[in-house]
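task queued by scheduler; priority normal; single chain, no ligands, no partner chains; default sampling; output format set to structure tokens
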Amino acid sequence: MKTLPTLLPLIALLAVSACQTVEGAGKDLQSAGTAIARESRQAAN
């Protein structure tokens, strides 16, 4: 049972870093989508 208190901070750190990675990927995809929409509007005009 001594390993559980040792592992909890590590598990929490991994969970937080995974959330930040997914959030960053979402922002990158949103930026790419915005750029594509802008280019398509320019091409249509």
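post-processing summary
- The longest helix spans residues 3-44.
- The chain has a mean pLDDT of 83.
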